[in-house]
Specification:
Layout: H1 3-13, H2 53-65, H3 69-78, E1 83-86, E2 93-96, H4 99-107, H5 109-136
Antiparallel strand pairs: 1-2
Amino acid sequence: MDEQGKKLLTVDLLGECWHEFIDDPPNCFNTCLNQCRKMYGSGEISYRTFATPDDMMAVKEKLVEKGLLIPFSIWAWENRDPRLVVDPESNRVFWEEPYMMWFWELINPARFCDLAQQFLRERKLKRKYVKDSRHDR
């Protein structure tokens, strides 16, 4: 997942601070330029990796709280990636519906969080498009 995806989950979904500093890398005397104002060297600054079970559960709980878990689950199912499979007996090629792969994606913390940020990006783009098209009238 790229930094923009992590920032989207951190700020837009979880409502947490995305720490930004004047110096890059920040020195121990810098305070966050955003809402938290925490000092860099204080040990209070940490970034989520969105690859741990704790991060996955935080994302899931926010999706539930915002009424987005079911739309997210439907989106994840509709956007699953079927695989091309060759039947060894008949040499026929067909698309395999990866039911177990879809289930795995929803229990793998890194994949779940990545799917959540993709879902939120798509929703954000759709809302922006609808807003822009209404404005053009």
